[in-house]
Specification:
The protein is mainly beta and about 60 residues long.
């Protein structure tokens, strides 16, 4: 696993939201106001992050 900023996420990245869960597949990443990004997962769930927030990506 590597840590990247939320703003650098791309489609098909697999991120771990909680240490004990399987990774979520990123479907879309959209810049939104106030330096934030909205990440939509293949499950349809959405999470907003500050662009500089670190997230764990499965490499």
């Amino acid at each position: 696993m590597i840590n990247v900023t939320a703003a650098s996420l791309r489609r098909n990245d697999r991120i771990v939201l909680h240490g004990d869960e399987l990774p979520y597949l990123v479907d879309d990443v959209v810049d939104i106001p106030n330096g934030r990004v909205r990440v939509t997962f293949s499950s349809g769930d959405e999470v907003e992050y500050a662009a500089e927030d670190k997230v764990a990506v499965v490499d």
